[in-house]
Structure formats: C-alpha cells, structure tokens
TrEMBL record:
Official protein name in the record: DUF4349 domain-containing protein
Stretches that traverse the bilayer: 261-284
Taxonomy, superkingdom: Bacteria
Ranges annotated as biased composition (Low complexity): 49-72
Keywords: Membrane, Signal, Transmembrane, Transmembrane helix
InterPro entries: DUF4349 (IPR025645)
Domain DUF4349: 76-283
Record PROSITE patterns: PROKAR_LIPOPROTEIN
Length: 310
C-alpha cells in the first residue's frame, strides 16, 4: 500500500511539469507571433528606412547565386574575315557572292562601289552569314577569282556572355526588390528615393540586355568583308625594262607636254605683244610723219655749190 501511495505523487508531479512546459511553449509562440505581427504592422515605416541597403543586399545575394551558374556547354566565338579577290567582272562576281550569302541564310549589310581613273571598278561589301555556314561561304568567295589577301579572326567571348547573363539575373532581382519596397512605402520621401533608384536600375538592366543582344548577334552571325577588284588593289613596284612602245609613248607625252607649255607661254605673252604692235603702228603711221612735216628742209651740198656759182 505504501508503494502505491508513493507512485501516485510522482505521476501527479510529472503531470504538473508537463502542463507547465506546454504553457511556457504557448506563451513563447504567442510572443513570437506578436513580434512578427508587430513587425508587419511597422513594416512600411521600419522596412523603408533603408531601401537602398535592402535592395543592394538582395542584389548581392542574387549575384552570388548567379555567379555560381555553370558555363554554357557551347563556346561563344565571334568570327570575322577580310578577303580581297581580283576578278574579271566585278558586277557578276558581286551577284554570285550575294546569291551564295542569301542561300546560306545570310544577308548583305553594306556595299560601296568606286571607279578609278582607268575605269576599273572596285566594290567593297560586308556580308553576314550564320556561323555554321561560315567556312563554306568563305571558301566559295575566295575561289571566285585570284585571291590577293585573306585575314580571319576568331574571338572567344564565352566568359563575357556568362558574365552578362549573370549580371542581368542580378539586376532583375534588384529591380523586383525595389518594386516590392515601393509597394510597402508610405512616406513620400521614401517613395521619391525608391523611384529614382528604380529608374537607375532599370536603365542599367536595359543596357545589359542591349549588350546581351549584341553578343548574341555577333556570335550567331559571322562577318565577312569582301573586296572585289578588276585590278590588284595594291600592286607591287615591279619595274620592267621599257620597250620601244614605252619609249614612243614617253616621247609623245613629252612632245605634247612641250607643246602645251609653248601654248601657255604664247598665251601669256600675246596681250603684251598686241599692245606693243599697236604702239608701233601709231608711231609709224601718225607720229613719225607729223614730226617730219614740221622740220625745215635743208639743201644738200650739191644744191649749195650750184647756188654759190650762180
């Protein structure tokens, strides 16, 4: 009997302790709920107090997550080439190059045609072709005539593409964070500050998107600058021995040049010669006869002797 009586108080004590623990737990939960509800109630004031810091913290967290993103399995490479080809007929070769580019899924982005003093035509075109068709189109273009010059470059921009994509992800998260803060803001000064911050971050995001589009275009489409000429663009200085025809042509050019200079000199002297001729004519026809008429006539020696004899 004594054993049963001693066991009952122990069970009673355990029940009391369990009830106290449950009570304490409930109070702690209520305190936590009250504190969270208080934070929610004070959210518009307390949460907007440091909008820039919260947005930067969110952007930093997103940036750290995006920086760990794996690199793409395909390398991003910008391919460019420059060709100079001598052909017999520039318009025909240009049509063939345009057709080959369009058949490959590309297009002609720029064209410049000039004609030199010898009536030789020269055309410079910029072609954009898909990267997969780059080698085939390049081989076809350089086989259209005599290849004078070729330059090909390949620039790997995989790291740059990954960096831009990561920054875009971070910037988008930052813009979303600032918009959330604007929804919670009630103070006018905080709203104005957040609007300026949102405008700046959206502008940065647009710049990153434009950079991403440019990288995508340059890595997906190769650029080929093609120069078609009927004569070598930069002919070497090869001095061949002159022949009879060359000597005859040179002599004729010298003779024509001499005649031209003589004509120029005659044209320059002609006005002065005309004035001198006019002065001489006036002197001989008008002035000189008058001077002779005004002078007395002197007898000759024979007349003097006859006069003295008489």
């Amino acid at each position: 009997m004594s054993t049963r009586r001693s066991v009952r108080p122990v069970h009673a004590l355990a029940g009391v302790l369990l009830a106290a623990a449950v009570t304490l737990t409930g109070c702690g939960a209520n305190d936590t709920g009250d504190s969270s509800s208080a934070q929610k109630a004070a959210g518009p004031e307390a949460g907007v107090a440091q909008p820039a810091e919260d947005a930067k913290a969110g952007a930093g967290a997103s940036g750290s997550k995006a920086s760990t993103a794996p690199k793409p399995s395909v390398n991003r490479i910008i391919r460019t080439a420059t060709l100079t080809v001598q052909v017999k007929n520039v318009p025909k070769a240009l049509d063939q190059a345009r057709t080959a580019t369009e058949n490959a899924g590309g297009y002609l982005s720029d064209e410049t045609t000039v004609r030199d003093e010898d009536s030789s035509e020269q055309t410079r075109v910029v072609l954009r072709v898909p990267v997969d068709e780059y080698d085939d189109v390049l081989a076809g273009l350089q086989g259209a005539g005599k290849l004078l010059e070729r330059t090909a470059k390949a620039q790997d921009v995989t790291d740059q593409v990954v960096d831009v994509e990561s920054r875009i992800t971070s910037q988008r998260a930052s813009v979303i964070r600032v918009r959330e803060l604007m929804d919670r803001a009630t103070n006018l000064s905080d709203v104005v500050t957040l609007e300026g911050e949102l405008s700046r971050r959206e502008s940065d995001l647009e710049a990153l998107l434009a950079q991403q589009a440019s990288l995508k275009d340059r890595t997906s489409m190769a650029t080929i600058t093609l120069t078609l000429s009927e004569q070598p663009v930069s002919a070497g200085k090869e001095d061949d021995d002159p022949g009879f025809v060359d000597a005859l042509a040179g002599g004729w050019d010298a003779f024509v040049t001499m005649l031209r200079w003589i004509a120029i000199a005659f044209g320059a002297v002609l006005p002065f010669a005309a004035v001198l001729a006019l002065i001489l004519f006036v002197w001989l026809r008008l002035l000189r006869p008058r001077r002779r008429a005004g002078r007395p006539v002197r007898p000759s020696e024979s007349e003097r002797e006859e006069a003295e004899r008489v």
